[in-house]
Amino acid sequence: MPPFEFCIPTVGTKFPSGPEWLHEIKYDGYRLRLERDGDRVRLITRGGYNWTDPWIVEAALKNRVRRFVIDGEAVVLGVDGVSDFDALHSGKQNDEVQLYAFDILALDGDDLRGLADAQDQSRAAIGAASRRHLRRAVRTGRDWA
């Protein structure tokens, strides 16, 4: 897979508006890039550190897609449902770490970074899944259902 750099947010003075803009909740956690290549799963922080959490690795390995890169945020939620950075940083609640994925950078060998927005990424992901399903259906002689 090609190397991936984190997209660094910029400071603005006002919120953009209009139907072409998507807004996301800001979680207070560790920015991570989840990379899966076959049976190898790594979580890399923005600072370049390997932060491979066993809970997230286990979930990534359950995915049928064997090659992907996801940009997200590892968080621990407090009882109020708000991300709790101190709980994450302490390491005392590692079994409660969740990954909030907000960008699919690559899927099944396809680099999706050039796509305009999340809808295009979703369409590409669905298209890739459909192509895989079609190849599997053709190879096994089964119908789509």
Keywords:
alpha+beta; 5 strands; five-stranded antiparallel sheet; 145 residues; disordered C terminus
Structure notes:
- This protein has 145 residues and is α+β, with helices and mostly antiparallel strands.
- The chain has one domain: DNA ligase/mRNA capping enzyme (D-amino Acid Aminotransferase, Chain A, domain 1), CATH 3.30.470.
- The protein contains three helices and five strands.
- The chain has a five-stranded antiparallel β-sheet.
- Strand 4 and strand 5 form a beta hairpin.
- It starts with 29 loop residues before the first strand and ends in a 5-residue tail after the last helix.
- The C terminus is likely disordered.
Question: What is shown here, in short?
Answer:
This protein has 145 residues and is α+β, with helices and mostly antiparallel strands.
Radius of gyration, taken over Cα atoms and rounded to an integer in Å: 17 Å
Kindly report how far apart the N and C termini lie: 32 Å
What overall geometry do the principal axes of the alpha carbons give? Answer: globular
Q: Indicate the multimeric state.
A: single chain
Instruction: Spell the H/E element sequence.
Output: EEHEHEEH
Total count of domains: 1
**Strand adjacency order, main sheet:** 2-1-3-4-5
Number of strands: 5
Can you say what the CATH homologous superfamily is? DNA ligase/mRNA capping enzyme
Q: Could you outline the blueprint of secondary structure elements for this entry?
A:
Layout: E1 30-37, E2 40-45, H1 54-62, E3 67-75, H2 85-90, E4 98-107, E5 110-111, H3 118-140
Antiparallel strand pairs: 1-2, 1-3, 3-4, 4-5
